[in-house]
Amino acid sequence: MVGREDSVEEPLNREPPIKALVSSFLTKNDAYDRNHGAIRHLSASTHTVRVDGLVNKPLSLSIAQLQRDYKQYEVTCALQCAGNRRHTMRTLLKEVEGIDWGDGAVMNCRWKGPKLRDVLLKAGLRTDKAQSTGEQRKMHVAFASQQECQEENWYGGSIELDRAMREEADVLLALEMNGQTLSDKHGYPVRIIVPGIAGARSVKWVDGITVQQEESQNHYQQRDYKILPPEAVDMKSAEKFWDSSPPIQNMPVNSVIARPLSGERVERLPQKTVMVEGYALPQGDEGPVVKVEVSGDEGKRWLDAEIVEGKGEKWCWVLWRAHVRVENGKRRFLSRATDKGGNTQKEHSQWNLRGVGYNGYGESRDVEIV
Prior knowledge:
Layout: H1 18-21, E1 48-53, E2 59-62, H2 63-68, E3 73-80, H3 86-92, E4 106-113, H4 116-123, H5 133-136, E5 140-145, E6 155-160, H6 161-165, E7 172-174, E8 176-177, E9 180-181, E10 191-193, E11 208-212, H7 219-222, H8 235-238, E12 254-259, E13 265-266, E14 273-281, E15 289-295, E16 303-304, E17 306-309, E18 318-325, E19 329-339, E20 362-369
Parallel strand pairs: 1-11, 13-20
Antiparallel strand pairs: 1-2, 3-4, 4-8, 5-6, 5-11, 7-10, 8-9, 12-14, 14-18, 15-16, 15-19, 17-18, 19-20
């Protein structure tokens, strides 16, 4: 599951060890990589972003213009692959199609750049109808990158225009990540960041933004990253469901146990407890995470964990920990998160062929307590 930076057939796809991932609130040196083609190497001095479609004034914006002509915003948010935790769905529920992501296909970063809303206001929405919230919900903003991909000769995705135009939605044309210029791997010189929505829509190396009546028609919007119904049991039976199934957008509330890992041997602390730690994420735009609970007795009793970092931040993950009292022997630990919107993890989520959006309880199995 690594691949090569220069490969279309076997692109770079990797995740960090989960313990390393949660060692800091901001993900700096070990962020996950998700690609459908080779890494693009672009020049900020020549790259432009085209803004067109249902706008009054099509734009062609250089990186210098994006830096100079628009207010710069900083937004700290988690960015998560739709297939994060696919391995858990595959092993606990049933076989799925797709890269065998563990729990580490997520990053929590501070992004900086102009808001997409400001750019679209500068271009002007073309019809009076599109000025109303109701009409914006029927329209879309599509993002494109001219990147040769495994299934398509470009990469694209889209979100509802209403989401893009909401001031509080914080959708960015990001130029920086954690105070530094974007790296090539993470979309230099400019990428889209859509907080709360599956990372597939946060298009890297973006060169086209189009306001339109329909969703992006790109393969990765129409034929991938969808929660197909249970009747789609293989790629052949899935064919009739692609057009009728909506693309995954908002990611679900979630939590993961990073310490101890399944199969580890752990010594109890003097208080006859074990330290359990992990991360938790809110659902879509319904953050922040307000509670994380942990169980060491198969869910009979739940203990409130301490939120160590990220408390009160709408788009971020939280890092949490709990001292759980347990007896010696083999034990299983569970975690569940609740966000401000009242969304709480269930024991399992719906199986789907592509293994996306899994948010069953966080789990660490067969931990030997001594």
